[in-house]
Amino acid sequence: MALFIKRVDVFANEHLVGTLAEYGKGRIAFEYSDRWIAEGFSISPFSLSLEKRIFTSETNDFEGLFGVFDDSLPDGWGRLLTDRYLKTKGIDYNAINQLTRLSMLSDTASGLLEYYPRQNLEDDSDPDNLEALFTTAESILSNSAASASDVEQLYIRGSSSGGARPKINITIDGELWIVKFPTSFDGSDAGAREYECNRRAVDAGLDVADFKLMDSQSTKGFFASKRFDRKNGKRIHMLSLSGLLESSHRFPALDYKHLLYSTMLLTHSKEELYEAFRRACFNIFIGNRDDHGKNFAFLYETEKKEWHLSPAYDLTRSRTYYGEHSTTVCGKGKDITEDDLRELADAFKLQEKTREEIIRDTKKAAQGFADN
Predict the structure, then answer these.
(1) pLDDT by residue (tens digit) across 73-99?
(2) Tally of CB atoms within 10 A around 11
(3) pLDDT value at position 137?
(4) What is the assigned CATH class of domain 130-226?
(5) Contact of 310 with 294, CB cutoff 8 Å
(6) Taking the domains of the chain in order of start, what are their residue ranges?
(7) What is the pTM of this model?
(8) Which of 23, 122, 281, 350 is most deeply packed, by most CB within 10 A?
(9) What is residue 282's three-state secondary structure?
């Protein structure tokens, strides 16, 4: 394994998008290829306009990368798992730079973009042995001993995943799905609760990715969600709100006004603006405080050359250590009222009748949902 890669080429479905290169400690530049400028699209409209120039990030939120490339990298659980895997190989993970981490991504990494040279492992693990993978995940989280081979099998299936909770990728009927594992902090019913929350989101009228509850011998079920960044075997470009705005989700800095305004600018669709407002209302009423900027995303439809909100995901009642929503409503992170939601809607001139219907429907769908 190459320990310190200083240049990677960025591809999209076998087309060269451009090149990332490190030119100083922690400083990374990006340049589009000539062909992509002629035939492609801006992969991050607010930061990387489609033009012939060398781009360098003005923030340090993503360790020298632009947010769109950081979106490709795992965080939380995926990063922990990658570091544990590197440790089994005798490699100091603190010495690995961002471009090397991009080169380690597997075929299950999120979104459209791929990075070469690539250095990852072939998947020869048993996709049906969820319990064994769950047991290894528990060992890693508790700092208990786990064999190098078990860590490697879990790394192959879960290292490219985002989010704080353990998860793996499996194929169901030819489609890629994410399966989440609960932690001891979450409780054994975490999967069942997330399933119920998603069912209520459907009742509330949200556009939600396909989901199911997988059987488990040791918990009340593993929550599974179909990957919406794949279609007919092709990867789809996905850009999180955090990536779009170059704002790390690790620091609560966004408001739902940012979500609605970004939706309006990217999609030019009143219907999608209402959908964004519906998600804000549902998260408030259901008590989903982990509503940070990486839990909202946009998909680019290449044939129509249009941006759309992705299906809603990571929907469950959750807490934050600071006791507030990660994304505020008109500046308020807690004790958010219906009038605060109305203020949000009014800022974007949403029709009063539709606004009230959305508030009513999301509140009704969330009613009685408890984090027991």
Answers:
(1) 988 788 888 888 888 888 888 888 999
(2) 19
(3) 84
(4) alpha beta
(5) no
(6) 7-116, 130-226, 235-366
(7) 0.92
(8) 281
(9) helix
